[in-house]
Amino acid sequence: MGLWILLVLLLQQLHLGNAPWTEVSVSLPAPSNVSISSFNMEHMLSFLPGPDTPDSSRFAVEVLRPSRKSWRAVAGCSELTAGQTCNLTRVFKEPSDRYTARVQAFTAGQKSDWTESAAFQPLLDTVLGPPDVSVSGCGNCLLLQVRPPSVGMLLMDHYIDLVFEVKRTRDGAQFSLTRQYQEEMVISYLQSGVEYCVTVTVKTLFNDKSVPSDPYCAFTSPPEPAHSLSVVYGLLGAFCALGFVLIGSVVYGGQLSFRLLRRRLLTTMSYFLLKVQDGGAAPPGLSGDTLSTLLHKEGSADCLLTDHRPVQTLRSSSEED
């Protein structure tokens, strides 16, 4: 009887799946958001646990390389906890190959389905970081020393272009240019004594995902000291004052010339009228006294005093006749 009871208990354990040789049941929620990110050829896998995943769950990572057509466990990523990432830099040895990763949750007696990432190609999908840049002035140009990020010699072979964004600090005017990669670059045809800021971006033949550098600023040549500007402004002010003086002199001199011309014209007219009176043909209504009075009012007293005496003399002689 006791033997039959033991046999029944053993069958119940086998039916419930509690025997040590039974397979682990698939009952855990699958991980989500499995993705691979890469910066400067360093590749990291991240994921999120599925909803209601027990805190005691662990996660395993496997990688598929198409050329081998089989999944391979990643060393160091076989018992991850929630929130941990998996470094795949050493696993992705061929930058031009396409890789796929997958993650599974498991406990001592349960496991989840696998969740796969999108296909990933290191050479195309990595993000290139900013280069190290130093800038110095060279008169009317800027001299740049450019050191690309440390991404290995393999990616260095694919460095094709450097994109420069040049901005003048004074007024914000800017322009861009693209050059083939060299460690030392010169940006020419700039203004002397002016500060410029330069931002550099690295691009490869197969990848345009890159982060630009911070702006690096320098003067093309040492700026002029402040006292020299004061001297220049002072000289400009002096020249302006001298110009105003010359213009005033010309205007005032013109007025003086007009007065002198008027005096000479009146003197000539008085002489002509006196000659007419001397010939007995004075204009009607214009006697000697009237002429003298008019000339004395219109002209200068200094230039008419000598001519006033002959008029009186002529009058006296005519009265005697």
Layout: helices, strands, pairs:
Layout (H helix, E strand, L loop, with lengths): L1 H15 L8 E2 L5 E8 L2 E7 L9 E8 L4 E4 L12 E2 L12 E7 L3 E2 L3 E2 L5 H4 L6 E6 L4 E6 L5 H4 L2 E10 L5 E7 L3 E4 L7 E10 L11 E4 L6 H53 L9 H11 L2 H20 L1
Parallel strand pairs: 1-8
Antiparallel strand pairs: 2-3, 3-6, 4-5, 4-7, 7-9, 10-11, 11-14, 12-13, 12-15, 15-16
Helix pairs in contact: 4-5, 4-6, 5-6
Walk me through the structure.
This protein is α+β, with helices and mostly antiparallel strands and 321 residues long. Helices cover 33% and strands 28% of the residues. It contains 6 helices and 16 strands. It has helices at residues 2-16, 122-125, 153-156, 226-278, 288-298, 301-320, and strands at 25-26, 32-39, 42-48, 58-65, 70-73, 86-87, 100-106, 110-111, 115-116, 132-137, 142-147, 159-168, 174-180, 184-187, 195-204, 216-219. The protein has a 4-stranded antiparallel β-sheet, with no helix packed on it. Strands 13-12-15-16 form a 4-stranded antiparallel β-sheet, with no helix packed on it. The chain is elongated, with a radius of gyration of 53 Å. The model is unreliable at 1-22, 280-288 and 290-321 (pLDDT under 50).
